[in-house]
Fold this sequence. Notes:
Elements: E1 3-5, E2 14-16, H1 21-24, H2 43-52, H3 57-76, H4 80-87, H5 90-106
Antiparallel strand pairs: 1-2
Helix pairs in contact: 3-4, 3-5
Amino acid sequence: xxxxxxxxxxxxxxxxxxxxxxxxxxxxxxxxxxxxxxxxxxxxxxxxxxxxxxxxxxxxxxxxxxxxxxxxxxxxxxxxxxxxxxxxxxxxxxxxxxxxxxxxxxxxx
Length: 109
């Protein structure tokens, strides 16, 4: 096992260097995707992806922030049941925003 000196510390301390680190830096060739019939998407899935890709990503963030605000206002005014109902919208809206972003970045496969 090789040892590396830390020059910032005057070279007096040594740390172990992983000999397999060079192997982990290997750049893998682009592997073609595996195309199988069971991996094919239905036309409904393609339609949903096409339509959600048209929606700007910030819409989902604004909607989730509005949901948090509405939930807070309802909670402060003493309407706790509607507050909790609307507060539960935040997570799904953020997940839909992430899905929207992934569809835009990676597109249809």
